[in-house]
């Protein structure tokens, strides 16, 4: 961390110790959220989410493939994430970075654990099944990729239309039925900086944070958790964040509901 970053971190810690944030948000307030969905014509589903200055685009593609050997009566789900160089100076082209792998796995785990998609409904016959590809593209990075990506993924899934299947092939020119979505999984990511707990860290807060916790739930149950960075959280703090996460689910889910009504 260079001198300027050190000064910035010290300033953030000083503010938080006084119960304030640099952008004047409350400790558990999200930055402004906007969602644009269903606008990528060549994708089966799509959504772009802006969370503050963080921007994530998700495209959904579906292909007819063979089912996995251990689940012959189910379809497949694949999540990938790409941190585009245009999004941040530290992002580079090449093999997936640890950060992109973690992002994809957290989104994937939440969707699977909440049973958002009934994979058995993707089965076509004993030899063929649909594979749903969820491709995450980070267009601008200003902190909290997890929550922006989870929201974008669910909104994109809600707009997804299944191509016609004919003789084991997908007819992409004919998309009729919407993909059946049985549940909604959304995440809330918290940071601990000194003794302060905060929601939706921007990039400067992330660079200052002592630890990070992402909680994915469906409004009723916690479906997954992912701890990042170092540091630790007490059981009391985790219990508090779980309660806040459940409350914040409803705040984010309204964007998914709006997409569903389109």
Structure description:
With 262 residues, the chain is α+β, with helices and mostly antiparallel strands. It has one domain (20-260): GHMP Kinase, N-terminal domain (Ribosomal Protein S5, domain 2, 2-Layer Sandwich), CATH 3.30.230.70. It has helices at residues 3-17, 98-113, 145-159, 203-208, 235-260, and strands at residues 33-37, 45-51, 54-65, 76-83, 129-140, 161-166, 169-178, 186-193, 196-199, 211-217, 222-228. The strands form three sheets. The protein has a five-stranded mixed sheet. The protein has a four-stranded antiparallel sheet with strand order 9-8-10-11. Strands 6-7 form a two-stranded antiparallel sheet.
Task: Describe this protein with a few key phrases.
single chain; 262 residues; alpha+beta; Ribosomal Protein S5, domain 2; 5-stranded mixed beta sheet; 4-stranded antiparallel beta sheet
Order of helices and strands: HEEEEHEHEEEEHEEH
Mean pLDDT: 94
Q: Helical percent range?
A: 25-40%
Q: Evaluate the radius of gyration.
A: 19 Å
CATH topological fold name: Ribosomal Protein S5, domain 2
Largest sheet geometry:
5 strands, mixed
**Number of structural units classed as domains:** 1
Principal-axis shape equals: elongated
Largest sheet, order of strands side by side?
1-2-3-5-4
* Poorly predicted runs of 5 or more residues: none
Class of secondary structure makeup: alpha+beta
Number of beta-strand segments: 11
What is the H level of CATH, i.e. the homologous superfamily?
A: GHMP Kinase, N-terminal domain
Percent strand equals: 25-35%
Number of helices in the DSSP assignment: 5
What is the highest CATH level, the class? Alpha Beta
CATH architecture: 2-Layer Sandwich
For the terminal residues, how far apart are their CA atoms? 46 Å
């Amino acid at each position: 961390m260079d001198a300027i970053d050190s000064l910035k971190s010290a300033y953030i810690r000083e503010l938080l110790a006084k119960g304030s944030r640099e952008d004047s948000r409350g400790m558990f307030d999200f930055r402004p959220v906007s969602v644009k969905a269903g606008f990528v014509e060549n994708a089966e589903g799509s959504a772009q989410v802006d969370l503050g200055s963080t921007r994530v685009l998700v495209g959904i593609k579906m292909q007819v493939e063979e089912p996995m050997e251990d689940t012959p009566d189910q379809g497949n789900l694949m999540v990938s994430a790409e941190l585009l160089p245009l999004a941040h100076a530290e992002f580079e082209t090449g093999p997936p970075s640890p950060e992109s792998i973690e992002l994809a796995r957290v989104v994937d785990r939440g969707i699977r654990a909440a049973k958002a998609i009934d994979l058995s409904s993707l089965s076509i016959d004993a030899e063929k099944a649909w594979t749903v590809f969820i491709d995450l593209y980070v267009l601008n990075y200003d902190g909290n990729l997890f929550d922006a990506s989870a929201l974008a993924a669910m909104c994109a899934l809600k707009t997804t239309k299944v191509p016609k299947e004919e003789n084991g092939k997908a007819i992409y020119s004919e998309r009729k039925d919407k993909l059946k979505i049985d549940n909604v999984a959304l995440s809330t990511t918290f940071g601990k900086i000194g003794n302060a707990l905060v929601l939706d860290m921007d990039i400067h807060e992330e660079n200052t944070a002592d630890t990070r916790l992402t909680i994915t739930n469906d409004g009723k149950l916690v479906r997954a958790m992912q701890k990042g960075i170092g540091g630790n959280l007490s059981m009391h703090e985790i219990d508090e964040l779980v309660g806040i996460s459940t409350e914040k689910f409803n705040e984010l889910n309204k964007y998914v509901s709006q997409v569903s009504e389109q």
